[in-house]
Amino acid sequence: MTYRHIPAMPNEVMFYLNCQPGKIYVDCTVGACGHARAICEKISPDGLLIGIDRDRDAITNAEHVLQPYRSNVCLFHGNFTRLPDYLSELNIAAVDGILIDLGLSLHQLKKSGRGFSFQKDEPLDMRMDIRSPTTAQALVNRLAEAELGDLFRNYGEERWAKQIARAITRIRKEKKIRSSKQLAQIVRHAVPKRAAAGQKIHPATRVFMALRIAVNNELDILDSFMGNVADYLKSGGRLCVLSFHSLEDRIVKRHLKILEKGCICPPLAPTCACGKNPVVRPLTKRVVRPKKDEIAANSMARSTRLRAAEKL
Prior knowledge:
It is built from 14 helices and seven strands. The chain is of the alpha/beta class and 312 residues long. It folds into two domains: 191 residues, Vaccinia Virus protein VP39 (Rossmann fold, 3-Layer(aba) Sandwich); 103 residues, Putative methyltransferase TM0872, insert domain (DNA polymerase, domain 1). Strands 3-2-1-4-5-7-6 form a seven-stranded mixed β-sheet, with helices on both faces. Helix 8 crosses helix 9. 44% of the residues are buried.
C-alpha cells in the first residue's frame, strides 16, 4: 500500500512539542506518520510514541513506516477518546506530549475509495473507521430535508444549505444517491450559477465536509477529548493541536481558554468560590498559520491552524 501525505507545519509541531529523548508522546491521529516519524527520531533511543488512528489503513502504514523504531512505538487502532484505556493498558499514568492533527490525509482523499473527495466517483461512504455503522450514503438518503439543511448549515457553514437539501430530497425520490460524483453534481446544480462562479472552492466542498464531520462525529469527539486532555499530561507536558476549519478551532480555543483561566466564578464575583486554578499556560498567544513557502509546496496545509499549551 502506498500511503501518500505531506504533514502540515512539521517544524512548528516539533518546536511546540519540544520532544526529548526518553520521554513519552502521543500522536492521536498517526495518519501517514510524517509527524510520528519526526517524534520517534527525537525521543530515541528509549522514548515511547503511542500512535492512534481510527483508519485501519493508517495503522497498517504506520506498522511499516515506523518499523525502524518498533521498540519505541505502540500503535492502537481506535478513537483517540480511548487514550485513557490505552494508557492504562500500558501502565502509564500521564505523558510528556500530545499531538492532535485533525486533517484528512491525501491517502483518504485519493486512495481510500471511500468517497471523501468529489473529484473521484466512489461509493459515498466517508467513514474513517469502516467498523462504524453510519455512512454518508445513509445520511443523504435517510435524513429529512430540514435535517439535511441543518447539517449542511451547522457543520459546513453552507449558505445554500436549504436549496441543496431540497434538491437532494427531490432527486432521491427517483433514485438512491450512492456515489460522491453523483452528490457533487446535485450540489453543483442546486447552487445558483452566479454564486458558484464567485466561489474560490468547488460548490460541493462544504457539503462534503459537513457529511464527513457528521459521519465520524468529529466535533463531539474533539469536544469530549479537549475537556479531559490535561488529565493525560504530566506537569510540563505539552499539547499541540492542528485544526483545519473554524468549527474545530473554536472548540480547541474555547477549551484552552478554560484551562488557562481556571476560575469559573462569575466575572463580578468579589472573590473566587470555585477554587479552580489555571491548568495550562498558552504557548501560542494566537493561532499559528503555515508560512507562505509551505503553502506553496503543500496546498493542503493552507487552512491549518495550530494552537499549543503546556500543563502547569
